[in-house]
């Protein structure tokens, strides 16, 4: 490690999953160096990266303060970060409490219910070699279903856990940006899911989230 920062974050400039880790590191003021892998060169499947992350996908995090400990899977990464370094529970709840399992519940739901389905919508819209309208329709319907689940809860409470922002909320931000901006057609977020849109906007306006997202825009623009 030559950069002198606490963490190395293996990420991708465009892909949503690395950015939620950046949000959490920024929220906690932890130092990190991002290494952006090039999917066009298949760097995420290169032997050096597979040694860190056998799944061959970003993100992966190396904690240089903890003997170069490596963790991958974005929600496992953010759970690791807060369990170890958010001891004041600024954006997390205390391990072992009931709320901790509610937080875990939303993190599992994000990783199994939001990420893969929103990702498949993107795949069938932008990358699949054939145009398969039924597949696009299926995953778009699933996006709306997931937003409906969030709406049913957020219309009764401001945040998912403990009445304040936690990693559970932050984990949904990158894919909800994709839903709001490019995965759905003729979509009026505020009208269809008002409480979820309000929650999403509040999260997106947090300085840590804005800072990480501005970095994303900067590194993407540099490639143009
Ligand atoms: N469940 C994983 C998903 C990771 C994932 O799908 N990452 C994408 C980028 S956002 C990736 O690395 N894609 C490259 C590939 O599949 O080869 C997580 O949350 O970390």
UniProtKB/TrEMBL annotation:
Q: Which residues form the GST C-terminal domain?
A: 96-224
Q: Which reaction does it catalyse?
A: RX + glutathione = an S-substituted glutathione + a halide anion + H(+)
The family database entries (Gene3D superfamilies) matched by this protein are listed as: 1.20.1050.130
InterPro entries hit by this protein: Glutathione-S-Trfase_C-like, Glutathione-S-Trfase_C_sf, Glutathione_S-Trfase, Glutathione_S-Trfase_N, GST_C, Thioredoxin-like_sf
Q: Name one Pfam family in it.
A: GST_C
EC number(s) on file: 2.5.1.18
State the GO CC annotations.
cytoplasm; nucleus
Q: What class of enzyme is it?
A: transferase
**GO terms assigned for molecular function:** glutathione transferase activity
Q: What does this protein do?
A: Involved in the oxidative stress response and detoxification.
* Recorded family membership: Belongs to the GST superfamily.
Protein name (record):
glutathione transferase
